[in-house]
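not sure who needs this but someone in the group chat was asking about NACHT domain-containing protein from Pelodictyon phaeoclathratiforme so here u go. i didnt clean anything up, its just raw.
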Amino acid sequence: MDPIYEQIAELPWIKGLLELAGIDEKYVSLLSLIIVVAVSVVIITFVRKIWIKINEWHSIIKKARDLKPEFEKDDIKELSHIFIRTTAAEKSPNRYDNPGEAYKYTGKTYDLIDFMLKKSFNENVESHKYYLVLADSGMGKTAFMLNLYLQNYSYVNFFDFLFGKTYTIKLLRFQSRNADKPDDILERIKNMNCDDIPNTILLLDGLDEDPFIFPKDKSRSDEEAFKLRVDQIVDATCRYKEVVITCRTQYFPQQEDDLYELSIRKGGGGFHTFQKYYIYPFSDADVHKYLNQKYGSSVLQYLHGRKKEIALQVVKNSNNLMVRPMLMSYIDYLVEDDRVYTSSVQIYEALIEKWLMREGAKWKRVSEREVFVRALKNFSLQVAIEIYNNWLNNRTFYITKDKAIEIAGKCEYPIDRHEATGKSLLSAQQ
């Protein structure tokens, strides 16, 4: 026998076990060799299969993270670089005057990404088919959807993938890239390359930004057109395993406890409804976590010491304002000029300017932006004055849709009725 095989055959722990089992001594060496070879083959085969699976998962992740044309690489980096976990509940935070009360009295809240991946999408847990995630402007709806998608396709989920516990997810945005000739998301869904629709989860971001949500037929009201559009979306997605849609809260006002019945039937009778979740503002801990990630913790903050000092001062002077993720993401604009803000009014002014620029860049061509931003600023000012007067006279903190449209009609630049009623500045609703 070859010396190496002799050494394997004489391994004491195997030889000892075989002798304890009562195997004839003349067969012990041969059986030891057979066992070692068999175990080696099993291990090598197992490692090879794991390596193949690792490469397969790597390829899936690489392919999944190419989200063009829905998201460019810069979009993905911006929305995932500093991400504070999304907290949500089944009750709207808008019923409370400040975030502290919302957290104090709401009761149960969820880490919404973990909740979706571990419970909502889990076929072993009873759940719904259609989910509606609601929040005001700047509350991180798109960041939530993107990071939900990315967490499903992450390397830490390899063992879930190995045991078949990951999901096939597709992420689309209602907003069209082409402003002049907007494409319909329903056509994109229809033409999407999807091999296994019944086992695919669909994430649809920004229903409020759907260019086809408003009526083309003048005989229909906005509400009728909206309901019809929702029915069309539900009909186009009914074959998918589950569907998550994000939207601004103002499109589903005062519906926390009301069932929004959809147009497709359940297998056991009745109709599907939206399971609604409301994104909550940052808690104090979230705000400080964000600042630590951006400027460094107490150990590392010497690298950005002055910036963090100003940022903390901004938060102190506008705590209720900085609970919106979008506004926290603007904090660099507030600290870059080394200015000390002594009042929330100064902070509001700076952030409103950034919001106006964001809206202009998001919706208008370069040649139109300056005039549009000026008109939108004037419109927002007139709306704020009208809301304030309503508060003084009627103790109501809102204006009607018709009044907003009337104010928009008086602007120097044409702000159409949908821009007038579809944008929220820093308040919950307009």
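also Confidence is low (pLDDT under 50) at residues 426-430. if thats useful
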